[in-house]
Amino acid sequence: MSPAATTCTTPSGLGARLAARLSMRLAARLLAAAAPSVAVFIGVVAANVAQAQTAAPFPSKPVRFVVPYPPGGPLDQVARALADKLREPLGQPVVVENRAGAGGNIGADFVAKSAPDGQTIVMGAVATHAINPSLFPKMPYDANRDFTPVIRVASVPNVLVFNPQTQERLKIGSVRDLLDYARAHPGQLNFASGGNGSAGHLAGELFKAMGRVSMVHIPYNGAAPAQLGLMAGQTDLMFDNLASAAPQVRAGKLKAVAVTTAQRSTFFPELPTVAESGLPGFDINTWFGVFAPAGTPPAIVQRLHAEFARALASSDIRERLARLGAEPAPLTPEEFARFVRAEQEKYARVVKASGARVD
Known about the structure:
The protein has helices at 3-8, 12-54, 74-90, 105-112, 126-135, 164-170, 175-184, 199-211, 223-231, 242-250, 298-312, 315-323, 333-354; strands at residues 63-67, 94-98, 120-125, 147-162, 190-193, 216-219, 237-241, 255-259, 285-293, 327-328. It is α/β, with parallel strands linked by helices. Mean pLDDT is 86; it is low at 1-16 and 34-54.
């Protein structure tokens, strides 16, 4: 038998065993090298599966829309109109819930302490998020730390109005006339408001501070009684909400002199601003907007913002706001947060200067 033949007839069992050992060693080395990557891959897959299993869709149930004031007011009316508008795109009812008391603090505090899942939100306002932190010696919530701004909804100008007989008797037809008279007769004019620390009160205090004049504040138990007192001649003037003052101005029961915002109102374009008619830099208004609890996921905040912004752009909501003397004023969550902080700083100065306090 030739050498070649001898080589070919080497026992096959030995070759097979050797190949098997080599294959097992190679496989073990390959598995050892790949183990970390495999573990990471399995971990990522497991985490994604767990997240998909535990993450609930938004909204998963009816959304609670808290209004921290009694039913029937401007905020309540706007909230209910928006709630109806959001029902279809959100796929869940939006239920307006009135939780009034303590200048809006009770309702706002309820939302601040709610779960940060977007299912409970509040229609906050200049009082709950800008004025009250300086007005109340002890607050149940932190207006910045405990909330996530979603969107500013609207802005409502205040308007400087007079009792018509008083205006005619004193010959005050403009802001400049008012400043001149008040400086010549310190403490002889008085102004009404809906209460100590109300938006109308602080507008008057800002006017006094910027105009360097002295007027006596007459607080009433609410804006409506204050307006009635003004029309009855109990007081001389008032910084009233444009929405509530407009019907009386049109009826001739009140005399409007100027709006308090930096720009003229589209509802009374003939009325000058306080700033342009004698007191440069004067700018104050009533605003309201939507807040969610702090820690609400950004994706949910953006979803809520988009739906509210879309609703505010609709013609029926704009018409509803117009009937209240309000103008849509949407801001992004980031813009709204900066705006609120600036408002807090402004009102902190006004409250300190006025000495206003609510126990």
